[in-house]
Amino acid sequence: MALEHADVLRAAHLARLGLSDEDATHYLDDLGRILEMVDHLQALDTEGIAPLAHPLDATQRLRADEVTETDRRDHFQRCAPAVENGLYLVPRVVE
Amino acid sequence: MHDKTLTELAASLAAGEFTSRELTEHQLGRIERHDGALNSFITVTPDAALEAADHADASRARSEAGPLTGLPVAIKDLFCSDGVLTTAGSKMLSNFVAPYDACVVERLKAAGTVSLGKTNLDEFAMGSSNESSAFGAVQNPWDTTAVPGGSSGGSAAAVAAGLAPAAMGTDTGGSIRQPAAFCGITGLKPTYGRISRWGIIAYASSLDQAGPMARTAEDCALLMNAIAGHDPRDSTCVARGVPDYTADLAAPLSGLKIGLPREYFGDGLDPAVEAAVREAVAVYESLGATVREVSLPHTHYAIPAYYVIAPAEASSNLSRYDGVRFGHRCENPSDLIDLYKRSRAEGFGEEVKRRILIGTHTLSEGFFDAYYKKAQQVRRLIRQDFLDAFEEVDVLMGPTSPTPAFDLGAQKDPVSMYLQDIYTIAVNLAGIPGISVPAGFVGKRPVGLQILGTHFAEQRLLNVAHRYQQATDWHLRRPELAEENA
User: Fold this and answer.
1) Residue of B nearest to A12 (CA)
2) Torsion of the alpha carbons at B153, B205, B302 and B75, rounded to the nearest 10
3) Chain A to chain B, count of Cβ pairs less than 8 Å apart?
């Protein structure tokens, strides 16, 4: 499955990763070769084999629906770039 | 002091030969003298270390010391340490002071250990040479023109150089075992889920596992006793009893069945590495083990499957770095999308971007089944290879890496760097434990023997590694550092 310039830009947009046209050209070659290496998988017949998501085939454990955390908002917001009154500041979204 | 193993240091502290403060001051002095060139630490925390050492000495004075009380350790800078800069080797987190301790850090503190600081690593643990760190490359103490391996390169180099008697690492595709091999130390990647991932900055959540890196298997066992076990905060951490990992270290190996995977001795393996590994296997035969060849037929599909699964999980895990809640934020964003895109473009390095792009592409509409689902199916086949092999043998042995440490700056092509991890990556896909032990040298550069066991066989692996270290002295060799002041 050959990769094209537009695919790189599309992935970059989906990942919210700033990438110029020239950057995309730069990555196209590397990513193309990685996918070429990955394409060896297609040679294997995996019909009927269940995908393995967890190496011990464990399922998600459930816990009781109880409050276990205390409110430490101020502590956790100390590492934020910009906060005010407990809110994260970002550029205006709605005019 | 710095030539002693963790176990020997524990005995010296218990016997009152020196205090934890004296030991900690000695290690901090070595870091000060030698780490400028090696660059194995990103952050050293002398004040906190001395405070913890005094606390440990006070506990000992009250006869409240445990087996690890007062022992210095270094922590890979992927574990959150409360109030300490925690960077993941990335510009993205170059200003991130973690607001809590990772479970492993918490347990090491509770055991009375003294953290010396945070060690260098490939950015977000993505790499095999430590060269992708935003804080610069690390030198291999055995040969300063060589890489220390990665991603836990700083941890491995710090232990090899005697800057710390032990360190914590993480292993997603070989990141404990390969740097341990390259730096001539012992490194254990436990079974997936054996140790809590809580507070470890996530790379690929279905593969990541923390583990100890030290001089000897005995030292790794000592650390495992402190860090292994259930933690409800990590839903993938297994609720299963923890044995005393030091209890069976000396058990005899007579009757041990060793399998040598045919695929681990093929093309691309450096003949000098192969010779060292075969010599190690001969030592095991002399200790009463029997050896046979086995096959792991899907070995060559492990790297392709990994480079779908790991980047896919990484692209999801790293979406949290958005310039809003923590980490790097770009200057003067024009709107929210610009804030996200520029913060991430500025904060992430090249290898991380490559993996985010691959992961996002393979998970995107129209590609999911062909890549991600296919890779997960292949993952089951790879795990089955190991389960079948462990029906016939107790442990598998082979080289940790096809070559000794390569030169700094030598691996320019990402794909050829990825292919170096041929013997370590399948282990993470299968979730089984593996240990790398020093088994010789090629020139100045160490060679690692990798020993693999079935799920939760850590105790057996440590026993098998320990008996080898009783019979050989590769793990006792120390590199000569430049400007060594006695």
Assistant:
1) B357
2) 10
3) 177
Render pLDDT for B422-439 as a digit per residue (tens, 0 to 9): 999 999 999 999 999 999
Contact B307 A38 (CB under 8 A): yes
* ipTM rounded to 2 decimals: 0.95
- What's the pLDDT score for residue A59? 79
Give A51→chain B minimum CA distance, Å.
4
Euclidean distance between CA atoms B398 and B270, whole angstroms: 12
Average of pLDDT values for B30-51? Answer: 97
CB contact under 8 A, A14 and B364: yes
- B99 and A78 in contact by Cβ < 8 A? yes
Instruction: Kindly report the three-state secondary structure assignment for every residue of A6-64.
Output: HHHHHHHHHCCCCCCHHHHHHHHHHHHHHHHHHHHHHHCCCCCCCCCCCCCCCCCCCCC
- Whether the predicted pLDDT of B214 surpasses 60: yes
Give me the half-sphere count of Cα atoms (radius 13 Å) on the Cβ side of residue B191: 25
Q: What angle do CA B450, B479, B286 make, to 5 degrees?
A: 40
A91 vs B206: CB contact, 8 Å cut-off? Answer: no
Amino acid at A54: H
Instruction: Search chain B and give the residue with CA nearest A58.
Output: B236
Per the document, the length of chain A is 95
Q: Mapping DSSP to helix (H, G, I), strand (E, B) and coil, where does residue B75 land?
A: strand
Which chain B residues are within 8 Å of A91, Cβ to Cβ? 333-336, 338-339
At B53-101, the pLDDT tens digits run 999 999 999 999 999 999 999 999 999 999 999 999 999 999 999 999 9
DSSP states of B302-339 as a string?
HHHHHHHHHHHHHHHHGGG-SSSSSS---SS-SSHHHH
Class of residue B148 by CB neighbours under 10 A (exposed 0-12, middle 13-18, buried 19+): buried
pLDDT in tens, B275-307: 999 999 999 999 999 999 999 999 999 999 999
Cβ neighbours of A3 in B, within 8 Å: 361
Specify the pLDDT at position B486. 41
Sorted by where each starts, the structural domains of chain B and their CATH numbers stand as 6-251+457-476 (3.90.1300.10)
Task: Report residue B484's pLDDT band, with 50, 70 and 90 as the boundaries.
Answer: low
| Block residue for tokens 């980490």 | B327
Residue whose structure tokens are 């691309």:
B268
pLDDT of B251 over the 70 cut: yes
* Euclidean distance between CA atoms B169 and B180, whole angstroms: 10
Report the SS3 class of residue B117.
strand
Residue A57 main-chain phi, psi, to 5 deg: 55, 30
The H or E element that residue B284 is part of is helix B271-286
Rounded to whole angstroms, the Cα distance separating B359 from A8 reads: 11
Domains and CATH numbers, chain A: 1-44 (1.10.20.60)
